[in-house]
Protein: GNAT family N-acetyltransferase
Organism: Natronomicrosphaera hydrolytica
Amino acid sequence: MTRPANTMHDYDTIQTDRLKGQRIELPDRDLLHQLHREPSVARTLSPTGTPLPSEQVDERFDEIIEHWKKHGYGLWMWFEKSSNAFIGRMGVQWTNTTGKDELELSYAIMPGFWGQGLATEASTAVVNLAFNDLNADELVAFIVPNHTASQRVAEKLGFKAEDRVTRYDLEHVRYRLKRADWQKQ
């Protein structure tokens, strides 16, 4: 897959009807820690099913910041427009899980906002940006097998389950969405 380049656009913010996404910046470190400390979230992001150690969250945070510097897009911190409440992080980032560079749709939502369609709403905006602005050929999403809510989000967007891979020492189902399939929707 050819890596989409960002040479002309400012992707620091992204919005939907109910949400606003902002480029992750250094002051957001505490919000990422807050997200990863949530036991329900940790069950889907941690190999032990418990919150990640602070050092690992810091490493992931630094990787997110570096991705933005290198590519000009990445993961956004998302907030509810009406209350400015932090709801989670979502966006696209390059990953190489099985020896191939792939553009990944990634999302994690605070449990208090589950079941409101916010992950689907924000992820739809991110997928549209990836295909329309970044000119991505395809996207992948990695979801732990027992996280049916996240699987439903991916499937609503048109992603199809492809195979199982190990990522961060945790088994995931890899989902894929090709541009041609997205355009048919």
About this structure: Residues 105 and 163 are 16 Å apart (CA to CA). The helical segments are 29-37, 39-45, 54-71, 118-132, 148-156, 179-184. The first helix runs from residue 29 to 37. The chain has one domain: 13-184.
